[in-house]
Write the structure tokens for this entry.
Amino acid sequence: MISRRKLLFNAGALTVYFSLNPVLAANANKPSSLLPRALKHNPELDAWLSLDKRGKVKLFSGKVELGQGILTAFAQIVAEELNVAMTRVEIINTDTRQCPDLGYTFGGISIEHGGTALQLAAAEAKAVLLSYGAQHLATETSQLSVQDGEFYLNNQPSGITYWQVLTDSRFDIQSYGRGVIEQSREHSIVGTSAQRLDIPAKAFGQAAFIQDMRFSDMWHARIVGPPVPGAALIDSNFESKHLSAGQHLVQDGSFLAIVGKREESVVRDSLTIANNCQWSRGSELPDENNLVAWLKSAADPAETVAQAGQGKRNSRLNYRAQFSRPYQAHASLAPSMAIAKLEGRQLTVWSHAQGMFPLRSAIARLLDMDETMVRCIHVPSCGCYGHNGADDAACDAAIIATKLPGRTIRLQYSREDEFLREPYTSAMAVEIEASVTEQGKIQNWDYQIWSCAHSSRPGGAKRAGNFLSASRIKKSIAKPASVPIPQPRGGSDRNAVPLYTVPNLRIRRHLVPEMPLRASSLRTLGAFTNVIAIESCIDQLALMTAVDPIDFRIKNLQDQRAIHVLERLREVSDWRRHAEGQGRGIGFARYKNSAAYCAVAFFVRVNKATGKITLDKAVSVTDAGRVINPDGVKNQIEGGIIQAASWCLKERVRFSKTQVKSRHWGEYPVLGFNEVPELETHIVNRADQPPYGVGEVSPGPAGAALANSIADALGVRLHDIPFTSSYVLQALHNVSEV
Amino acid sequence: MAVNFKLNGTEVTLTIADETPLLYALRNDLGINSCRLGCGLAQCGVCTVLVDGEPERACVVPIKSVDNKKVTTVEGLGTSESPHPVQQAFIDEQAMQCGYCASGIIMTTSLLLKNNKDPSESEIRDALSGHICRCGTHTRIINAVKKAAQLARSTEK
Ligand code: FES
Ligand code: FES
């Protein structure tokens, strides 16, 4: 029955009711202004979905699989809206020739934006198919329902399917918002932990990653880069004796690559050439042991990003502290790679970068090509967690391919290349000064950040200069100036504004414009450090007023969903009954102050003689609105908690004045199987709320909970990441001296 | 020099440079997918395979050293029609985010369960301590190993 009110879509506060009246729908001859941007920019329904004669539905994905299970969630959405079995959905990875342009897959917004648009497109496709079905069966759409793509007439199978009524498989129609999403109906696929579609191939050793693509005319390539950022090639007079027979050296300015048929010979020659290259000195790096001082000295004047109240009020209960994070690496498990081929004037690039359309524009600009002559196709690799070496590998493969037309070039970075070339997350310093009333209400909050920009993606033609090789080739393009990401998303200042009620507040940001070490986006950008600083401060204020940390937070919050996750966490985490000798700590944030809510409780033990921190357990509660795939959501939240623990305890890019020393896992250790905590992950499913991405919600709260649990166990607060055992010992020593 | 060895039960012969890392031979000459490059330095465990039943890091094993030996990769454990208990458990427990670490971990786990039918949590953690998972899927992987042990025991009975 269609008499129910239908929800067209529900995006945040915007809820649109739409009656399923075919006349009304037919009159909607221009796109609804309420359509999500992704649909408005890609209005052709065929850009999103098509039917395939074999009884399949093709889903052209504008978002890419990064190990977060997004494509499975997308397949669930389409199967649900179209009433087909999930096995009928066939996913086409982002390909600039056939998929909608949804920009980058980042910021944990794929479900919020891409998923909502896709859901509407699928609902619209169903509306169109229903009208064809009704024509075919000479009935009204109101008499029809669908099961696994077959029309049911008054609940009886009609023998007629989608694939019979849409004869040429294309919709050939623009998206106007005819679709109807029945928000209230029972979901059978969305909201279930459907099996991830990509996992079996990975368990059986089938081709599953870009690494597994092979072409009969494929040649292997390795690059030879400078050991120091900013260095140029001085002596490029290579003798052929350094190259094995049949091997090519590709050179363009300071860009060097070795290309050949056998991968092992290419590796060997690239090492030999590297040993015979002379590079200029390059840029001087800051003192890795004094990063805060460097950030403050190199920063632009402050910009105020948020302000409220009349200015500071006097209070006896003040807290003041400084926190810092060093440069940290994405350190993706697989060094980046890409495949590229120039055929005639057409360049095709296969890449695991996060945005195929931005990549296409940037490569076209760098190589001075017409954008229509460049095609970028996404093929998954390992998790990237942000802007790692993937874009640069794609750029480098493209440069090489244009020098060796007609050859398929497979460029593979070495482990060392990846560590040296990837942009790190910027070092960051935060100063916080806050006060609280005797009654435990936050009164003043003054907060300052020093950091390089958190995004320097080579996305789009204007930012092609952000490719590492852009400054190395002869027709070089200068690196564009650093631009901070504005609020409310924010870069260094992401989540810098506390969700707590603060009458007098000022948040300032100091941009460090230069980048002696290249910096760009790593999962959560500045939110990780900001949430740790804010939540550490909150714990100290709670301590000063002798209020339980959870009570203190609830007392200073107004948002009911925030309060709910904290209360749930108290119930499920055994907050009041932690073991003897164990430190406990809590961390909470609403990601970007506008997406999912997450609260984490960490339980740790610290050995005061050795400084060793043992992670016993982390319990989390997350409210991400409507959940498409609960198990997938848990998986990402858990990953975020473990990665955050690794950032907190172990990670720091090491460098001297002249070079980066973190070139392999020995110089950049991460949390291992012997160190990870037990996890307990709870989800608050709110089927009536819009879905939020969860890729980035847990690291901030987890890092904060960990910092607070260490402070609880030690009786001393640590401020500078990473919290290594020597730092613990030094902090204990410092208090005993006082 | 020609090298002869058994790859997942099938005799193969290769004539390539002696020092070629087994990893490149498996991938580029023998069509193996599961054994992938992570570090090339024996640090991450991604490329772990079994050579005569012992775990080896294929990125640093020269091809000549497997002459006349047996090499097993994930492809040799089981298939989608008849999965090895470890493969089944990794699928059931969704013990992957990106899954790039999975092949090596599956190989190490298959060996662990051969020697220890009912490993404790700390034995599992120790056995996997040479593997890096950057996505933070560790706890699921540990659960999958426990599940695999259960599956293996129940199919034996
Ligand atoms: S690739 Fe062999 S151990 Fe890392
Ligand atoms: S699942 Fe991505 S590295 Fe383990």
Notes: The two ends of chain A are 76 Å apart (CA to CA).
